[in-house]
Amino acid sequence: MSGANIHELDLIAYGITVKTVHRNPSPAQLYEHAIRYEAGSSIADSGALVAYSGEKTGRSPQDKRIVKHPDSDKDVWWGPVNVPIDEHVFRINRERAIDYLNICERIYVIDAFAGWHPRNRLKVRIICSRPYHALFMQTMLIRPTSGELAEFGEPDYVIFNAGRFPANRLSVGMTSKTSIALSFAERQMVILGTEYAGEMKKGVFTIMNYLMPKRGLLSMHCSATADAQGPQSSVLFGLSGTGKTTLSADPKRRLIGDDEHVWGDDGIFNIEGGCYAKAIDLTPESEPDIFHALRFGSVLENVVLDDESHRVDFHDTSITQNTRGAYPIEFIKNSKVPCMAGHPTDIIFLTCDAFGVLPPVSKLTQEQAMYHFISGYTAKVAGTEMGVTEPSATFSACFGAPFLVWHPAKYAELLAEKIEEHKVNVWLINTGWSGGSYGAGARIKLKFTRAIIDAIHAGILATAPTQPDPIFGIHVVTEVPDVPAEILIPERTWADKSEFAGTSRKLAGLFIANFKKYESGSAPGVKAAGPEA
Ligand code: ATP
Ligand code: MN
After folding, report:
1. Which ligand has the shortest distance to the CA of 249?
2. How many A from CA of 79 to the centre of ligand 1?
3. Is 475 a catalytic residue?
4. What separation in angstroms does the CA of 234 have from each of 5, 345, 421?
5. pLDDT, tens digit, 9 for 90 and up, residues 186-207
6. Is the CB of 200 within 6 Å of ligand 1?
7. Helix, strand or coil, per DSSP, at residue 485
8. Are 50 and 44 in contact (CB under 8 A)?
9. pTM of whole model > 0.85?
10. What DSSP designation does 52 have?
């Protein structure tokens, strides 16, 4: 390999015969290619590359497939999250992807790492046809130095992204033109029929969610920050839109990562080398670090620009509500590179409760922590169509069911062990509604949620006064510096107390109904830690 050009690579071993293969091109080169070859691509006035993912502007969880193979069959949590396909169908999909890649004029390869921990890092190869996808994954993975690239060798996993080309709906197990298929035996993933770049990033996370627990390490759908002085860290779990990325961009802390981490014997480490922030309604005032990170070298997805000035209108959701920006982690001033830190002192579960009944912050016992981790509750605001304002509850195990490979109990056991061993405080924070459900109340102000998190980090909340919630049993914190005491107890913020009680019982009922599917497998005490029937 010595003396060879690290930016050249032969893909014949994969059956890819395209002559022009660009390996780990510079961002400037990828900008040039995106603008030259992809209709619609542009540069925002901030310097970010603006690209469009086409029809799919979000993930397609129903189209994820895992190859059923004797080596991993017993490990996988088969069901709606992990739908099996056989090896033969996987090979048909892969051949289709390679056939498509072979008719492209040029191919991009990104060789990079997943996992900052030297002993647990994975070598990942992305093979794709769009410069936008290449820049996205170069941003999101951990970028190798030129020396590391020269010595990269064979990757551990390969992702073939032929998202421009559809899957064959007549293949057994294909239910749409979209397919995201993963084979642990072949150590490959094939993407067809979606150009949403987030599929690749969450594909890598799914792979880590398989491999890490196999080694006794806990992979987590969370953001993480570290103390500015000491090695201590804290993690924020939460489903999409609950505030992982927003709240981890915190000038008082060092950023470890915004979305995917692993907790091992010597602390935590980020899986990624970049962040992927929601861009809807982004302003420099409320989220300055993220706003300023969206500069040259970043990718802005599905946003609308002014034709003349190329200023981004972050309020424009005409393409999608899920507008996004991807930037290298070092674009956040306070990031800690390498992205590793000591054991967490605090675990925070974020929920965006659109019913407006969960308190802004409560302390959880170990059993309650397990109950809420397995439940993984958040709520979505139903579409505004036809005047529907009723929120809808989502329960997603471990705050990330779509990315789990093992049964949720595997992750829950690892978490319980670590909470016990490191005497970690666990908190439930509602970043959602206050003063009424969606439609009547309002979302809790970001500055109040930030003040709550500051107080946790300062160690103030560990000794703050609490009172038990009559329905959920969690210990509601009643005093937080810089947060008005009247908002800390939700009932007080509702004008109609009986409506509050009814909504609270309704949400409790949804928790109870959801937990039924885990009752037999859960540890003693965990069920009793939920709301009372
Ligand atoms: P994903 O897993 O999809 O990346 P995420 O958990 O990282 O989701 P964020 O990108 O942080 O979610 O999104 C939170 C959104 O909610 C942001 O747009 C943020 O501005 C907004 N928001 C409003 N009020 C709050 C609050 N009190 N706390 C946190 N976020 C808030
Ligand atoms: Mn995020």
Report:
1. 1
2. 29
3. no
4. 42, 6, 15
5. 999 999 999 999 999 999 999 9
6. no
7. helix
8. yes
9. yes
10. -
